[in-house]
Amino acid sequence: MDGFIPLQFKEREVEEMLLIAKDTYSEMKGRRTTRQFSDKEVPKQLLELAIKTASTAPSGAHLQPWTFVVVSNQELKQKIRTAAEEEELKTYQDRMPEAWAEILKPLGTDHIKEHITTAPWLVIIFKQNKRLRDNGQWGPTYYATESVGIAAGMFISAIHKMGLCTLTHTPSPMGFLRQILQRPEHETAMLLMPVGYPVEDAKVPDLQRKPLDEISIWFD
Ligand code: IYR
Fold first, then answer.
1. From ligand 1's centre to the CA of 6, what distance in Å?
2. β-strand 130-132 against 66-71: which pairing, if any?
3. CA angle 22, 23, 24 (to 5 degrees)
4. Does any ligand 1 atom lie closer than 6 A to the CB of residue 179?
5. Does the C-beta of 170 come closer than 6 Å to ligand 1?
6. Nearest to 124 by CA among 76, 56, 62
7. Rounded to the nearest 5°, which phi and psi values hold at 76?
8. Would you say residue 113 has pLDDT above 90?
9. 82 close to ligand 1 (CB < 6 Angstrom)
């Protein structure tokens, strides 16, 4: 078949797969979202590797409809924080229905977004809604939301596995990010993720994850 190459696949013994699967679960089970970041420096190369890992995600028609904007410049971080807090203040004060406020309560969030200026890196993932076709015209992308969601998941895993923390922050509405970061009209900011170390005495809410039998239905 033209344009096809052999799949590089190495079959493992089931025993070995079980060990790896248990190890992966144990590792990922320990991941927590923190909002308390330290300003300790993180080498740029680690961010590059996490983004490369995220970019291995499958995507609709392999269009890879994502742009990772990475910020460590303190002035720019401050600009983003000011704009995010302005929107979030309106959200928390006026726009948030009671049904939403109720479920956020245990998370202890408010409109103050200190992590934006404290964490050494911010990664903002933009979704590309259009692509430039070979004929010079703009065409749509496909399943871009799903694709970006998968890439974000892989980014979060990569960050956790290397021993750092991140937070999937969704300042709402997020239009200000396109403007501040000078992204084109056809890109939409999806997630703002500070990356760094947690502060030494970081606390997280005491949350439980749903058990397997509550989240899955099996026909076997
Ligand atoms: N975007 C706001 C509110 C918020 C919403 C959800 I859903 C969360 O899980 C957490 C927060 C904020 O970032 O504070």
1. 44
2. unpaired
3. 90
4. no
5. yes
6. 76
7. -70, -40
8. yes
9. no
- In a domain, residue 206? The reply is no
How far separated are the first and last CA of the chain, in Å rounded? 35
pTM for the predicted model, two decimal places: 0.97
Distance from Cα 193 to the centre of ligand 1, integer Å: 13
Query: Which residues is 121 bridged to in the sheet?
Result: 195
Q: What is the pLDDT of residues 137-179, one digit of tens each?
A: 999 999 999 999 999 999 999 999 999 999 999 998 999 999 9
> Average pLDDT in the 80-102 region?
96
For residue 125, tell me if it sits in a domain. yes
Provide the domain count of the chain: 1
Handedness of CA 51, 191, 125, 136 (dihedral sign): positive
Asked if residue 216 belongs to a domain, the reply is: no
Question: How deeply is 113 buried, as exposed, middle or buried, from its count of CB atoms within 10 A (0-12, 13-18, 19+)?
Answer: buried
Residue 64 resides in a domain: yes
Ligand 1 centroid from CA 169, angstroms? 7
Name the average pLDDT for the chain.
Answer: 97
Indicate the length of the chain as a whole number: 220
CB atoms within 10 A of CB 12: 10
Q: The CATH number of the domain where 94 resides is what?
A: 3.40.109.10
Residues 176-216 have pLDDT tens digits of 999 999 999 999 999 999 999 999 999 999 999 999 999 99
Range of the domain at 82: 35-199
